[in-house]
């Protein structure tokens, strides 16, 4: 039974989410502020996190959780649909971003999808993927969920890792955003192209911070993304 922590100061929203999750077989607990959330984080598999809390910002919890080495999945809940907020949350380490209002049923589906891609498959682990971009070797080991660039570990979110693993598996192949959504999130999960772009931006940022080439993940304009395997084509870039 997965344990979900709902960090939300609006009782009606928190209680409706907790009821829907428990009805669907999850263990759910509520924290109405950052201080209470910190006390309840131990053993949590996923956090539903409101950004606007009485004693601070949900961004603080994401930062502190990731710095501490804890890796529960995080779905941000927000009444703001600004692209800057969405990008900031995903780059900081959130796995998904949902704007209010939303239905409890939709949130249960999102929780299941995020937890599903966070769990290793029950069958034989897939082999490690490896690709090179110029002198920048990138390795992705899906069995241990570790990625490196020039031997230096990349500290990736779950979605960033899955995106990189998908691209690295077939270096040079252009994946459309729809194909990436299908492979990383799965069928029946409502993800927009903008969400994919935000996660790719976060992935690129971490590649650069680790000393990698910002052009490792190329944008093929009007199509999608690929792992670079040589000189960039005329239609490629990293915007």
Structural summary, described in words:
By secondary structure, this protein is α/β, with parallel strands linked by helices. The protein has two domains: 3-118, Response regulator (Rossmann fold), CATH 3.40.50.2300; 129-237, Winged helix-like DNA-binding domain superfamily/Winged helix DNA-binding domain (Arc Repressor Mutant, subunit A, Orthogonal Bundle), CATH 1.10.10.10. Helices cover 38% and strands 24% of the residues. The protein contains eight helices and 15 strands. The protein has helices spanning 11-23, 34-40, 58-67, 83-92, 104-118, 158-169, 177-184, 193-209, and strands spanning 3-7, 27-31, 46-50, 52-53, 56-57, 73-78, 96-99, 129-133, 136-141, 146-149, 152-153, 175-176, 217-220, 224-227, 236-237. A five-stranded parallel sheet has the order 2-1-3-6-7, with helices on both faces. The chain has a four-stranded antiparallel sheet with strand order 8-9-10-11, covered by helices on one side. A hairpin with a 4-residue loop joins β9 and β10. α1 crosses α5 (104-118) and α4 (83-92) crosses α8. It is globular. Residues 121-136 and 231-235 have low confidence and may be disordered.
CATH topology of the largest domain: Rossmann fold
Strand fraction band?
15-25%
Instruction: Write down the domain tally.
Output: 2
How far apart are the termini? 41 Å
Mean pLDDT: 82
Q: What about the largest sheet?
A: 5 strands, parallel
What is the alpha-carbon Rg in Å? 18 Å
């Amino acid at each position: 039974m997965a344990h979900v922590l709902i960090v939300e100061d609006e009782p009606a929203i928190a209680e409706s989410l907790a009821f829907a999750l428990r009805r669907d077989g999850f263990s759910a607990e509520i924290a109405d502020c950052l201080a209470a959330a910190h006390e309840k984080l131990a053993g949590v598999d996923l956090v539903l996190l409101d950004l606007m809390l009485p004693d601070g910002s949900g961004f603080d919890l994401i930062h502190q959780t990731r710095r501490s080495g804890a890796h529960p999945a995080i779905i941000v809940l927000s009444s703001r649909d600004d692209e800057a907020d969405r990008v900031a949350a995903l780059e900081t380490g959130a796995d998904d971003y949902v704007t209010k209002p939303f239905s409890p049923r939709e949130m249960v589906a999102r929780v299941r999808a995020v937890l599903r891609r966070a769990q290793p498959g029950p069958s034989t682990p897939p082999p490690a993927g490896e690709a090179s971009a110029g002198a920048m070797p990138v390795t992705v080991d899906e069995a241990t969920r570790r990625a490196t660039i020039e031997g230096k570990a990349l500290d990736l979110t779950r979605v960033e890792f899955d995106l990189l693993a998908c691209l690295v598996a077939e270096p040079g192949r252009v994946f459309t955003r729809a194909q990436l959504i299908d492979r990383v999130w799965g069928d029946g999960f409502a993800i927009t192209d903008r969400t994919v772009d935000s996660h790719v931006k976060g992935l690129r940022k971490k590649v650069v911070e680790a000393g990698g080439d910002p052009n490792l993940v190329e944008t093929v304009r009007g199509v999608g993304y690929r792992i670079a395997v040589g000189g960039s084509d005329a239609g490629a870039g990293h915007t």
